[in-house]
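Q: What would this chain look like folded?
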Amino acid sequence: MKRIALSILLCTLFGTAQAATSSITIDNQSTVNFSGYDGQPKDVTGTKAQGFFGALRTTVAGTFYATYLGNESGYVNSFTLTSVGTPSLLETNTVGKTISSLVGPGLVGFSFSDNQGATFSNGQAQTNTLGFAILSGITKTQGTFDYVLGFNDSYSSDADYDDFVVGVKFIATPVPEADTSAMMLLGLGLMGFIARRRKNNQA
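A: My prediction, written as C-alpha cells:
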C-alpha cells in the first residue's frame, strides 16, 4: 500500500511537469549555408548565413504566432497562416506586426507567396531557389523567437533567404488534467492510513 501511495504522488508530480512541456520541431532537417542576406532583415535580425531546410511541426495543440521582420526583394511577397479568417503579413506592414492561429499537433499550416504566382507551403519540398530557411530566432530589435523564417521567392538569380522574413513562436495550450491537489491528498491520506495501521499492529 505504501508503494501505491508513493506511486500516486510521483505520477501526479510527473504528470504536472509533462503538462507544462511543449515543443515545436523541424521535420526532415538539413543544413543550408548562403550569402547575401542584407537589407532591412539584416538591420532587424542581424546577419544570417546558415540555417535549416525542413518543415515546422508541433507536438501538442497551441497558438502559433508569426511576426513580420522585414524584406529585401524586387518582388512583392507575403506570409499567410492557413486558418480561415487569419490575416496575412504583407510588405506594407510595419516591422513587429503579429498574426496568430490556433493549431493542433502536426505540420503547422502556413505559406509564403510572391506576386509572380509562386507559393511555398510548410512541408513542401525545397527547390533550388523557391522556399524558406529556418534560422536562429535571436534578433537585434524584436527579441527572441523560436525560429526566424527567411523566404526566398521565385526570382532565380539569388538564394539569400531575406526576401520576406518572419519570426515565429509557439505557445502550448494548457492541458486539462485531474485535480493535482486532490491526488496528492489521496496519496498522503493513504500513507497516513498505512502508518496508523503499522502502529496499531505493533501495539
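Confidence is low (pLDDT under 50) at residues 4-22.
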